[in-house]
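Help wanted!
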Amino acid sequence: MDTRIDFYPTHQQQGYKLRPGRAFPFGATLVPGGVNFAICSRHATSCTLVLFEKGAPAPLAEISFPDSFRVGNTWCMVVFDLDYERIEYGYRMDGPCDPAAGHRFDRSKILLDPYAKAIGGREVWGEPPDWNDPYPHRARLIFEDFDWEDDRPLEKPLEDLVIYELHTRSFTRHPSAGVKHPGTYAGLMAKIPYLKELGINCVELMPIFEFDEFENSRPNPVTGETMYNYWGYSTVGFFAPKTGYAATGPFGMQVDEFKNLVKELHRNGIEVLLDVVFNHTAEGNEQGPTLSFRGIDNQTYYMLTPEGYYFNFSGCGNTLNCNNPVVRMMVLDCLRYWAAEYHIDGFRFDLAAILGRDPWGAPLSNPPLLESLAFDPILAKCKLIAEAWDAGGLYQVGSFPAYGRWAEWNGKYRDDIRRFLKGDEGMVPVLAERIQGSPDLYGWNKRGPTASINFITCHDGFTLYDQFAYNDKHNEANGEQNRDGGNDNHSWNCGVEGETDDPEVNALRRRMIKNALAILLMSHGVPMILMGDEVGRTKRGNNNTYCHDNDLNWFDWTLLERNADLFNFTRQMIALRETHALLRARDFFGTGPTQSDIIWHGTQAWNADWSPGSRTLAFMLRERQAGQGGNTSPVLYMALNSYWDALPFELPELPINYRWHLFANTALPTPHDIYEPGHEAPLEQFQHSFLVGGRSIVILIGHP
Amino acid sequence: MAFSANLEMVDSEARITLDGELDAAVAEQFRQAIEQAAQQKPQKLVLFMNTLSFMASAGLRVLVFAKQRMGSEVAVYVIGATGPVLNTLQMSGFHQAVYIQENYP
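Answered by r_m:
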C-alpha cells in the first residue's frame, strides 16, 4: 500500500499516532498506514475508541476522539501503525441516561460498531462464553482481498428460480451428513452436488449475520439440553457473517470461507439469497443487554413509545427504527455491502412490514426505506423479497409497497394450497388464482406472477411431512407448555396423529407430500422448497423449532435413502419446470406479451366445477399456436383431485397428431409415480378419460 | 512453536520453506520473504509447507499478498500442505488460485 505524503499523523495519545479521520465510510476501514474509524451518534457527547488485543479481557488502550475529530455527529479518526490482525475494537459513548427521553447512554459499556465487518467472541458454535467479558461481541478488522476471479451475481430471471430455504448449521450438522466440517459454510459447500442433483438454482440462507446463539439460552426443562437462539433471527452485527458457522472461525477466516461458499454456489449455477432481519436487534427490551445501538444512540436506532419504552412490532422486544434516515442509511449500506463485497444475489426481509412503519409505528404509504432499496443502483439486480407482515398485525400480502421490484412470501398461497390439499370445501376458485401466480393479489397493480414467492412450508411451521402427520402442533420440547408457535397450520394427519406403522396411512402421507410438491412446482410464481421436504424431513410435530440444536432441526441424510421416491419425485418436478417455459411465466395470462393460455377443466373437459362443494380442478397450459402451422410445442395438463375417492377426468381433445403421455400420477407407487421429462409414458388407452385416484394428482404431457 | 520462512533461489524459481505456526505474530516474516523473492523476479514461486502445522488469517492474507505481488505471470505452487493448513486453503478458496501438490520435483 503506498503511503501518501499528505497522510501523516497530526496528533498523539498514549503513544498512538493519530490524525482526523474521514467521515465516510462508517465503520473501520484500512487506509495507508492505519485504520480509519468512523461512527455517528446524534445524542452522544463524547466518544472513545477502545482497543483490545484479540481475546484479551482488558483493553489495550482507550483513545478519546479529540473534539476537532468530530464532523457533525460523526466521530472519525485514523490510528496509525495498528497491527490489523491482532486487534479488536469497540467504543464508549457518553451522553444522557434519561430513558423517558429515549436516551440510555452508559459509559461503562464497550459498544460494538454497527458497521463491524467481522465479529469475535463466538468463534466456535455453542462454546460457552465468558459471561463476565466486558465486551462479548468484538469488532475486528478485515482485508477485502478475496480472489473472486470472474464471479459475479448470477442475475437469473426471478421466474426461473427454484428457491431452497435452508439453515446453514442444520443442513450438515447431523452425523449422517458425512462432511468433514459439519454445520458450517464449508459443510454446506460439500453438499453442493446434492443441491445440483435436486435441481434447485437458488438457496435462501436463514440468518447468517452474526448473532448470539446464547441469547436467552436455557436448559430444556425435559432433557436438560441447552436450548439456543438457534435459528438466529436476532442480529448482533449486520455487516459480519456468523463466525460460529465457519469451520475457520477460530482462525479468523469466516469472511473468506463464506465468500468461497458463495463463489462455489455461483460456479454451480446456484444463486444466494440471504434472510435478513432488520426488524429488531439482539438487545431486546429495557431488560436486555447493551451491546451496540442502545448505547450508541438509543433514540435514533429504536422505535420508542412516548414514555421511552420499546415498541415491540417484532415480537422480540424492540423494533429497529428503519425509517429514521440514519438507520435507513445503515440498512442501505449493509445491503450494498453484501451485494458488492459478497456477491449476494438477493435478500428476503424478515417481518418486512415493519420496514414500512414510521418512527411511531404507523404504516407509511410511501416508505422511504423500501423505496430506497427498490431504486438503489447497487442493489438494482438483487432480488428483494418481503415477508409482508409483522408481529404488530400489519399484513400486507398483495399490498406490500413494491415499486415494481419487491416480491412477497405469499402466505395466502401457503394457506390456500394447504386447505385444498386437506380437502376443505370452497377452495377451488382460490386454488385457480394461486396456480396462476395469484393475479387476485398481484394483478391489480400490474405486478406479475414473480411477485409471488410460492411456498407451502418454510422454517416457521410444520415440515411438509408433518403437515400430513399432525393435526396439532407438539411444541412441548420448547418448554413453553405448547403455547408458542402458530395454531393455523391447516394440516391433516391422514388419520393417525404422529408416527405410525399403518402402511395405508404412510402411503397416503407420501401421496399428499407429492401432491403438494406437484402443485408448488406447477404453479406460476417462484417456488420455494423447505430444506428436507424433498426427503420427508420431520420435526415430530413441532412447528416452532427456533431453539433446538438437535435432530428436530438437523437434516437427517439417511432420509435420502429411505425416501428416495420423494427425492426423485421432487427432482423430476423441478426438471419439468426447467424443461417447460410455460411453467415459468413472467406475466399473467392475458397480459403482457405472453402467447400462452391456461384452460380450466374439471372431471368434465372444458367445464370446471367452481361450486363450494367441489374438490376437483384440472387445467391445461399451452402455447396459443400449439399444433398449428408446424408448431409442435407440448401441452401440459394437470388434474387435481382432493376428494377421497377416485374420479374419472375427461381429457380435453389435443391437436391432430398429439397424444397424451403420463408424466406423474401420485396415486401410483414408485417408480410409476413420475417419469423423467421427455421420457413420459405414452397413454395407450386413456386418451379421452383418465381415472385420477382419491387425493391424487395427475400430470399429462401432450405432444406429437 | 517457532516460525521460520527461508527463501532460496533455484534458477528462476523462488522457493520458500515455511516451518512452525504461521499466525499474526510472525506473518510479517513471511511477508518479507515474499518481498525478497519478488525482487528476484522469479518465474515461479514454490512454497513448501510440509512442516507448517498451523495457519491463521494473517498467514492467508500473506498468501493472497504473494499471489498479487507476483502477478498473474508467476505460477504459485503450494507443496506438502496437510491437515489444518490444507483445510484452511480449501475452505478459504485459496486452493483455486495456486497449484497444490504433495511433492515437488
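OP: Thanks! One thing I noticed: The longest helix of chain A spans residues 503-522.
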